[in-house]
Fold:
Amino acid sequence: MYKLSTLRNGLKVATAEMPHMTSVSVGIWVSIGSRYEAPEVNGICHFIEHLLFKGTRRRSARDISHTVEGMGGYLNAFTSEETSCFHAKAPAGQLEELVDVLLDMFLHSRFAPEDVDKERGVIKEEISMYLDEPQHHVQELLNATMWPGQALGRTITGTEETLNRLGSADLKRFMRRNYVPKAVFLVGAGKLRHTELVKLADRLVRELRGARRAKFEPAAHGQQAPRVRMLTRRTEQTQMAFGIRTCSRHDPRRFAVRLLNTILGESMSSRLFQLVREDLGLTYSIYSAPTFFEDTGDLVISAGLDSEKLSRTLRLVLQQLHKLTVKPPGQKELQRAKDYVMGQMDLALENTESQMNLLGEQLLGYGKMVSPGILKQHLNRVTSREIATVAKDFFRPDHFNLALVSPLRNTREIEKILRSY
Structure:
């Protein structure tokens, strides 16, 4: 099902052939994101993402959207800490034109000064929108707390100050230096043939130049005690984001972390949801999610709650963390977690876009495709004892970081609770 080719300039083409489908999803993936940015150009990858939709030598911005939507498809893009992706989906018979539009955007975007100025304003509005959303703002505060003075602690969107520094020439120069063949993957999934997409990639071979892939500074830790950061705002609720530093995507413990997270707070049947939400009604929602980077990772527990219930909720969270370190989960609970994760994986892979995303993430993260079957084998091997071991490894005060957006005015009680763990 999965095929991979490396072309003569180093660019890779990967496909998931799904002949039973009626659609195709195609993405241009680049191993570049906000971690690769110097502080003075923070936000430049996200800025480039916006500009690729604003017109090329052949197509205006209107032409780009009309062409893809006119075939019943859609275009989108995203920028993360380590990845940029420009992707589209359409009926299978439109593959050639769909790829033509994506390559035109990627290779020939104009970066016209007037478009740069306009999108700078749009991104500033986007930043303001996020700052007005406490549940989003608290995540940015957590990143700055967990990774202080580092690229992982800076926002993907950049700041007004950094955006004001960036002009058309800066964007073109950054893209020319960093969006190079060995950092680029053309990925497709659906009713297509691998040889067909390889042939359509010829323009990327002929026109894409550069050899050296960008690098980023490794994450620095050095934390010795819990960190707490609070932004006092007149809000109805306190938004809490509790971050725990864990391991990288290459660490064999990541499978145990994935299952630990499922047991702890990923779903409605998880321990935190059942205790904090269902049994005690302290918050409408509470959930946890892991993220794995090239050299580090984290697990974040998030909740929105009445400020008067914050201390009790935090104590309960810490109790659940401690419980996982001293008592391995039972076999039934562990098996439910495995069934949940593997079932979610199967459901996600039913459509072409999810297959394209999995393929892109695997190739950029590992340089190869790790099949769902292999991932399931790793998950199935995880034991209850391994869950308790990774909990002991990471559920420690010197890995704890708490961010709050709250009407509260001081964090003395919260800091005391964390120190008591």
